[in-house]
Amino acid sequence: MSHLRVAIGQLPVAVGDIQGNAERIGETMDWAEAHDVDVLVLPELALTGYPVADLVLHREFVAEAEDAADALARRAGATTTVLSTITRVPPRRSWDSVERHVAISAVVINRGERRGVYHKVLLPTYGAFDEGRTMAPGGEPGAIWRIGDIVAGIAICEDLWSGDGPPEAQARGGAQILLAPNASSYHRSKREGREQLASQVAWRNGIPLVYANFVGGQDDIVFDGSSLVVGADGELLYRAPAFIEHRAFVDVPLPPHRPVTGPLRTVHTVPVPDRSHAHMPPSAEPLDELVEVWQALQVGTRDFARRNGYEQAVLGLSGGIDAALTAMLAADVFGPGQVLGVAMPGPETQEQELADARAVAASLGIGFAVVPLDPLMASTEDALSAAMGEVERTTPDVLDSGPRAARLRAGILAAVSDAHGHLMLATANKTELSIGAATLRSDSVGGFAPLRDCPKTLLYRLGEHPAVGHGRIPDRVLSKRTTAQQRLGGELPPYAMLDTIVQRYVQYGDGVEDLVARGLDPDVVLDVLHRIDDAELARRQSPPGVTIGARAFGTDRRMPITNDWRTKRRRDSARLDADHPQPTLGPETAEEPDR
Amino acid sequence: MSHLRVAIGQLPVAVGDIQGNAERIGETMDWAEAHDVDVLVLPELALTGYPVADLVLHREFVAEAEDAADALARRAGATTTVLSTITRVPPRRSWDSVERHVAISAVVINRGERRGVYHKVLLPTYGAFDEGRTMAPGGEPGAIWRIGDIVAGIAICEDLWSGDGPPEAQARGGAQILLAPNASSYHRSKREGREQLASQVAWRNGIPLVYANFVGGQDDIVFDGSSLVVGADGELLYRAPAFIEHRAFVDVPLPPHRPVTGPLRTVHTVPVPDRSHAHMPPSAEPLDELVEVWQALQVGTRDFARRNGYEQAVLGLSGGIDAALTAMLAADVFGPGQVLGVAMPGPETQEQELADARAVAASLGIGFAVVPLDPLMASTEDALSAAMGEVERTTPDVLDSGPRAARLRAGILAAVSDAHGHLMLATANKTELSIGAATLRSDSVGGFAPLRDCPKTLLYRLGEHPAVGHGRIPDRVLSKRTTAQQRLGGELPPYAMLDTIVQRYVQYGDGVEDLVARGLDPDVVLDVLHRIDDAELARRQSPPGVTIGARAFGTDRRMPITNDWRTKRRRDSARLDADHPQPTLGPETAEEPDR
Question: Does A375 lie at the interface with B, CB-CB under 8 angstroms?
């Protein structure tokens, strides 16, 4: 059996940094060359970063990418590199009336030349992906490539997923191996799904698959790497580690030649050398599920901070689990000495909470300051009372202290951030962001909200996990769930039930009837769904964070702010009040895995 | 020549309010029936509102729309109604690997029945539009409909625009008239473009076109109505008024029968009556360009407020043009008695500014309050100094008063909003939002930012316009452009030049070289572009507003926050500093029309 020596460059994502990416790619090409690699596969849009969003509407950006690809082609030696980048293509119209001028492509470079280019055919336009918005689809799914004495296919990310797309056309047409640049973002259970898919594609077509992925954070999304090589029998040959930059080469056993019937381009005809010992590096073990989540949070936060120029972080330390985990994450990412936790006790803060905040800071070794809120509350109250008295009768709730205290807290953190260039971290979690509770407490103000996609129940699991929070988060913080529940507001269901409703509604599109059929109380369901819809404006203005699940708010779930479906919920709610006088609470159901 | 009596229901948009929309549609059907109308055409997604965004991923929502369409079908009499709504369709994959289950459709209803359904073929997935994200494309562009003794085609919005799409297939197949539900959002110059397109479609195919559009605001976008009927010769037969709900019927002259070769469905076979006098209501005159902008701002703000439950507004009154125009808009939308302007003079506020703010309030007749900032500044300074002293050496800029004053101002307005349920209006304009200046002054905090898509130079034009601001905005506010320029910061170019750079970069994708070729100074250009890219995070968190131009931030222009292309700009900037020691400032160029 002959082998093809294939290398994977699992590079860090850096959208827009064409020159920096080109330098890194060039070094990887040199490394591959030095290891006698036949083909180097890089992630999708390795040269520009992914996703490029509307950067491709800037002609200057596209031209710069084209120039950089040319320069890399000139640098190429005997190793063939599958270099994914944007390329300018003849205008093409497809699913609407507007011509697209740019494609997501893989430029095949060898010995100083561009030897051809493949254009991605299937353009994901769902979930977090918007490729159809700006990109022209490729029109030649079956293109195959002669590389020495073997025939390869190239498919880019979504191209793999249809079950009857480019891989199938290429294998039918004579490809013996599939080379696949990818930009596959992390969410929980994603790695398993991805490996299953890769295995199916390989087995279905009887050819091995080389799957190169990015690593690192880009705004709301994180790429986990975990690049793959799968054999023609669908078995995993190699798995790269998750969440770190990595390169590796693998001698991939090839199936016998097939009759070539597809459109064949020649990259070169120098035969691939016979290698006596096939090189096969050891695979990385998959991570524990919660360790994986924690690493995603770290990498996403680290790259947001680093790439936006932040070396320090500040956050409000309340003594609760959200703030404690955010502080621990910041300590991991920035180093404890670069993190400042600020406790801002207000009129309703209990002594114990302040003590808990102090304990968190001490346990993590981060900086700690206390800014009492009382003088600020008094002076704002005076100013507002006077002003309101000028224009209208002041109602008692004019000076509702809750939101005002929250805003003052946010203002204090922002002043610290201004002064020292700290990244201001918001501590909001997904549960509270869902129902609008994060706003009231101003937990959603800041430059980055790392935990915004983590349900509250998951935060407790992270806090208790031996390899994550155990021993670092004080026990008291983990044990006061009742207090957290009380602070949420008496009319709301327990967090576990709340998380179930949020997940079923947001992620699976369940309706009131579906949820009631699961044993949940109709009044509770309607109330929660109504809150979720109502919180859209506040949520839209909240900072980005790290996506760890399907249908993350904003990135993956895009809803109208002004949503008159709410009107219907109010009517339904009134109707239910009449029909079901005293329903019981439904069961607490556990969080479900992402599909 | 025979005529078809066609009615247009130019209905208000209300995304999600299926029941309310159905009631309104039912009334319009009754009205059409009473006027012996042959065919009633309603806007695109008249039943659900447009755009539905990810609401269609909720099965309950789709089912509710299907039920409501059935109920309307049962209500239908002799008038045929082209009712656009979402419908569940067999799963279809198209440009990626994910099946879509829902289409944008036009259900044709007559005499108690659904007589068939057309599915939109071209799904706009660019600019502000995301239909490809969730919708299945229709697969029968040439479908035509027998209505009595005539043959009609149906095309939905984007279907009209390709030049070789459904209208062409339908006309070729035998259609004598084209019925077109639309959701065509307003921006400047849009009406002219739309009328030109409608004329071309009609003339090219030799058949009349009936174009029904929505009216009203949905988050960032406004529909201007201006529905149309165009004759087979491309001449405008009827134009409905802009920005108001409206219904009208028109007896449209039909071209002779054509041979029917397309796929024909029969709605009914009762002949259309011969009418002795063709009914042709007078057309509305197009609005003056700036009056049109002002009406768009009014309608967009009104509908956001009304549909989200706000009856009052509060804003900060600085004495500048942005605040003055925001206040005038609020007075128009809410009534002067429902608007509160709050002046919050701080350490750097001059007496004259406070007097100007007072003059604006008096001129508009809105409520006015003064909240001096000094006591708040002093108490926050004390608190912060103490806190910062605890943890690290305090640098002089710790207590930089600018951003802190801005945040306190935002907090005061928010407290008023909390107390009385005012909608907090942010006064940011597009120019300052572009370069990040709005954040520093906290003009971008609030629930809605009506002027966020208006360049500064446009604001002056609106303020001076006889039918908009003249006589309402005090002359002093309009005359202090130099002050406004100074407040912007000395290193920035004049507003007129700034607006040119912003427009060319954001809207037309111009690069540094393009801008320099227009005579603009390279250093200035690089500095401004860098600021635009850098302000993305702040912009992402700013409130929605009214889109009046192409490529509005957020809705229509979607950029990465973490954008390493900035790195390149910094390098270019350094290079230019060396190359061009003392370049002169480029010319001030006027704002260009949208294309």
Answer: yes
